[in-house]
Design brief:
This protein has six helices and 13 strands. With 206 residues, the protein is α/β, with parallel strands linked by helices. The longest helix is centred in the last third of the chain and has 15 residues. It is globular and about 50 Å long.
């Protein structure tokens, strides 16, 4: 079973539906026992960094997430879920992120001819081999919706990047922690393949 962490963020149900399409049982929950007993855990989300951290703290989920990471349960952050895994964000100065991974979330720089938020399809370049992208060709297109982007402290964890005004660290892998700035659940066949790879990892297949 895949546990989708419920912290009142948007986009939870579309992620649940994507796993259902793959024939995988998924449950939206904030129950600690259910989360820690799952084969894999997903932290999706759209919204503001500070508000989201407030909800995670309110529901006691910050420690549940850190415990899941300690137990090496396969964990996938999506969009805001990626950003929350890092230390801080320009969007919410003074608010501490989960700090599971080292790095910061910066505002996408203004660039003539480009709209912010970055909203739409963009191709991925592979920085390092990543288990989420097994069997997926470099240059594949995925769907982004964001105004802030990740700059990881350790570029060795960056598996895929995209270009939009600047180099965006689009996906990271650190142990059994995975994260995507883009939305695999909205990225068609490519996105479903990424989620399928995560399920395979969660079930011990790779």
């Amino acid at each position: 079973m895949i546990a989708i962490i419920d912290y009142d963020a948007g986009n939870l149900r579309s992620v649940e539906k994507a796993f259902a399409f793959l024939g995988e049982e998924a449950a939206v929950t904030r129950d600690a026992e259910a989360i820690l007993g799952a084969d894999g855990i997903v932290l999706p989300g759209v919204g503001a960094f500070g508000d989201a951290m407030g909800k995670l703290n309110q529901y006691g989920l910050t420690e549940v997430i850190r415990e899941a990471v300690r137990r090496e349960i396969p964990f996938l952050g999506i969009c805001l879920g990626l950003q929350l895994l890092f230390e801080k964000s320009d969007e919410s100065p003074g608010v501490e992120g989960l700090g599971v991974c080292k790095g910061e979330i910066l505002r996408i720089p203004d660039c003539e001819g480009l709209k912010i938020p970055h909203m739409g399809w963009n191709s991925l370049q592979y920085d390092h081999p990543g288990r989420l992208f097994e069997g997926i060709p470099e240059g594949s297109y995925v769907y982004f919706v964001h105004s802030y982007y990740l700059k990881a402290a350790d570029e060795a964890i960056v598996k895929a990047s995209a270009s939009y005004s600047t180099k965006i660290h689009a996906s990271v892998e650190q142990g059994n922690v995975f994260a995507c700035q883009f939305h695999p659940e909205k990225s068609g066949v490519v996105g479903l393949s990424i989620l399928k790879n995560f399920v395979k990892i969660a079930k011990g297949g790779c």
